[in-house]
Amino acid sequence: MKQIIQFFSVGLILLAITVIYDGFYILEEGQQAVVTQFGAPVGDPVTDAGLHLKMPFIQQVNEFEKKIQIWDGEPNQIPTNDKTFVFLDITARWKISDALRYLQAASGSEVRAQSLLDDIIGGTVRDMVNKNNLIEIIRSSDWSEDTMTPGISNEAMGTRPVMGRDKIADIILETAGRATPQYGIELVDVMIKRVNYIESVRERVYDRMISERQRIAAEKRSFGEGQKNEILGTIERELKEIISNANREALIIRGNADAEATQIYGDAYSQNPDFYQFLKTLESYDKVIGGNTNLVISSDSDLYRYLKSVEPTK
């Protein structure tokens, strides 16, 4: 009897150890779990972090992320509605919204979930690109002429987009988001990371961009030359006005000076006409006779008579 009790006690201890070892599990923050028994789900998904109980060895705990995850698709070559091939690089964010359905539909595998998103998002993107022209893919929905380089003509800017890249991304999110809940997945957002042309189209686009920039540069140079000529013309006109005013003032001053000199000469002449006439005669002799010139005058000349009259008496 004593041996039976000891054996039963040992069994209870082993059972307790087993329950403690495999009968509890800790669910960390940011995780959710689905408990399965022989592969079949048992109960609702567990989403609260902490210590939880399960049947040891019989039941298994399948843990999944609650945080947002990233899907990054491979760049694909897709034709637009206007028959232009582009490479699109798409990315998306998603999360597991229903762990039980995710386990059943996607086998609880992230690889399987990524493959499903490849099909869903990739197909939706291809449909949207096929239905829209290139301008809708490469331009944002908030595009406006105010954001473009000043001076570019309307023809160069092209037609204004109806939806734009951002709205197309929203439509892709809405359309693909209706297909993912059946797999327990919720799409958070979809974004077009990069749009690139194929090689043949890229060369034509680069040539067009170069010619357009050259045209803009020529317009700016022409505008600058026009401003330069206008400034030089203004400076030349102002310079001529300044010179003309200066010449006019100089003529006025010279005329006033000549009038004043004439007045002075007139006053002097009126005071002593003979002396003034003699002085003017001397000035004329001074201008025509050099320093080494011998002057021969007649006895009846004015100069001789004047010199004779002022000759000192002996």
Task: Please specify the SSE layout and strand pairing.
Layout lengths: L1 H21 L1 E4 L3 E7 L2 E7 L3 E4 L5 E7 L3 E4 L3 E4 L5 E12 L2 H8 L3 H22 L2 H5 L15 H4 L7 H13 L7 E13 L1 H73 L1 H16 L13 H8 L5
Antiparallel strand pairs: 1-4, 2-3, 2-5, 6-8, 7-8, 8-9
How would you portray this structure in words?
It is a single chain. By secondary structure, the chain is of the alpha+beta class. 54% of the residues lie in helices and 20% in strands. Among the domains are: 2-64, no CATH class; 69-197, Tetrahydropterin Synthase, Chain A (2-Layer Sandwich). It is built from 9 helices and 9 strands. Helix 3 packs across helix 6 (165-177) and helix 7 (199-271) crosses helix 8 (273-288). The termini are far apart. The relative contact order is 0.08. The model is unreliable at 148-157 (pLDDT under 50).
For the secondary structure, the number of strands is 9
Rounded to an integer, what's the Rg over CA atoms?
54 Å
Write down the overall mean pLDDT. 81
CATH topology of the domain at 69-197: Tetrahydropterin Synthase, Chain A
Q: Approximately how much helix is present in the residues?
A: 40-55%
Strand fraction: 15-25%
Biggest β-sheet description: 4 strands, antiparallel
User: What would CATH call the homologous superfamily of the domain at 69-197?
Assistant: Band 7 domain
Cα(first) to Cα(last) distance is 193 Å
Q: Number of helix segments?
A: 9
Low-confidence stretches: 148-157
Overall spatial form? rod-shaped
Q: What is the CATH architecture term of the domain at 69-197?
A: 2-Layer Sandwich
N-to-C order of helices and strands = HEEEEEEEEHHHHHEHHH
Secondary structure category:
alpha+beta
- Name the CATH class of the domain at 69-197: Alpha Beta
